[in-house]
Amino acid sequence: MKVVHTIEELRDQLRGQLRVSFVPTMGNLHQGHLSLMKLARQHGDPVVASIFVNRLQFGPNEDFDRYPRTLEVDIEKLERERDVYVLFAPHEKEMYPEPQSYQILPPADLGGILEGEFRPGFFTGVSTVVLKLFSCVQPQVAVFGKKDYQQLMVVRHMCRQFQLPVKIIAHETVRDTDGLALSSRNRYLSEHERAEAPQLYACLQGIRTRLLAGASNPDELTQEAAAFLTARGWDVDYLTLRRQRDLCAPSPEEIRSAEPLVILSAAKLGATRLIDNLEVF
Hints:
This protein has helices at 7-14, 31-43, 71-81, 92-95, 108-111, 115-118, 122-137, 149-161, 191-196, 199-212, 218-231, 252-256; strands spanning 2-4, 21-25, 47-51, 86-88, 141-145, 167-171, 234-243, 261-269, 272-280. The chain has twelve helices and nine strands. Helix 7 (122-137) crosses helix 8 (149-161).
């Protein structure tokens, strides 16, 4: 595996390649990330991965400074798996040589709701860095995980709007044996919090089961689940049922007609904020 730190080195490695498959990450790699790279290899060759902790997508009170940076360990993991040909690990000055005055602002009806409401500017930061990375790598395929469901939709929307020749492939959420979605932030959980954390996914499963059994009042279901979590010490930002195609709230008719839906949630357990989702129908 080649490890490069500049855009010039990256382009030298990829010159003439016509089937580049790309997986952007912020590092601190776990099995979920490695699964993305295995899927990427099925859709293109060579596979490029990136590791870049993007300052633009962190709010002023978020964990940019303490976000785990484990480049050497990440390189060892990638070399063992042997799915990645080039790792692009730029320094911040390489990606942002001057203040980033040009930024990509997603539409408010997609980027300003849910995560966008609780983390203002987050999807502007995501969209800006993904567009820059696409410009650097020029992939034909890029793979994103469904755990960050809204992010996946924002990136797809951006590709359509800018007519980018990049096919976006979605990978199913990778979970631990108890159902907790794998995340770099799971390492912040205390032993007690880690034992409690799977309750978030269990609540989503309970809502999905009741919807499939014919329940037609999603607000009642999500409010009950949020109250259950709150009583156990969670601080729930949102827990909601939305249409898969645009993340708008479904009508009762759409629920009855098996419109593809998704339950999305974000909640803090102690100091750690976890997100999860589960598709329905």
